[in-house]
């Protein structure tokens, strides 16, 4: 269970609220799997907290050359993700993975129906690794997080002294200077 899974679970719980727009603020592109139309967007950091990019569903498709948010884990199952130690399939890169996923819609469908594809043998040789990689990349949206009401997440502001003390312990000198 990772922080991304808790975020995924919270999004899953709150996306049913009518007229609620969800913005996921993170430095991790794994959150792009959660994006849905303009209702659920991900604002990710490019370089620091002041340089961000907002991904709606169309922006995710542009970044992944036409793949939908729910196909990102299929992509990572084939290509891997070094930042998360996900191996993927050796010799399969984006130029191979993207057309396969576009045609077959999912890794599982390719494994079941892609026998005529020239990459079939290479991928099936690493079938278990590909499926494990997909599973590792896929955000879990069923974590034991019992928060169903947004009011439960409301925080009162912290006393400035407590925040400064906490930031000192963590060595966040630039943040301390911002709040003083």
From TrEMBL:
<keyword id="KW-0378">Hydrolase</keyword>
<dbReference type="InterPro" id="IPR020045">
    <property type="entry name" value="DNA_polI_H3TH"/>
</dbReference>
<dbReference type="GO" id="GO:0003677">
    <property type="term" value="F:DNA binding"/>
</dbReference>
<dbReference type="InterPro" id="IPR029060">
    <property type="entry name" value="PIN-like_dom_sf"/>
</dbReference>
<dbReference type="InterPro" id="IPR036279">
    <property type="entry name" value="5-3_exonuclease_C_sf"/>
</dbReference>
<keyword id="KW-0238">DNA-binding</keyword>
<protein>
    <submittedName>
        <fullName>DNA polymerase I</fullName>
    </submittedName>
</protein>
<dbReference type="InterPro" id="IPR008918">
    <property type="entry name" value="HhH2"/>
</dbReference>
<feature type="domain" description="5'-3' exonuclease">
    <location>
        <begin position="1"/>
        <end position="156"/>
    </location>
</feature>
<dbReference type="GO" id="GO:0017108">
    <property type="term" value="F:5'-flap endonuclease activity"/>
</dbReference>
<dbReference type="GO" id="GO:0033567">
    <property type="term" value="P:DNA replication, Okazaki fragment processing"/>
</dbReference>
<dbReference type="GO" id="GO:0008409">
    <property type="term" value="F:5'-3' exonuclease activity"/>
</dbReference>
<keyword id="KW-0540">Nuclease</keyword>
<dbReference type="InterPro" id="IPR020046">
    <property type="entry name" value="5-3_exonucl_a-hlix_arch_N"/>
</dbReference>
<dbReference type="Pfam" id="PF02739">
    <property type="entry name" value="5_3_exonuc_N"/>
</dbReference>
<dbReference type="InterPro" id="IPR038969">
    <property type="entry name" value="FEN"/>
</dbReference>
<dbReference type="Pfam" id="PF01367">
    <property type="entry name" value="5_3_exonuc"/>
</dbReference>
<dbReference type="InterPro" id="IPR002421">
    <property type="entry name" value="5-3_exonuclease"/>
</dbReference>
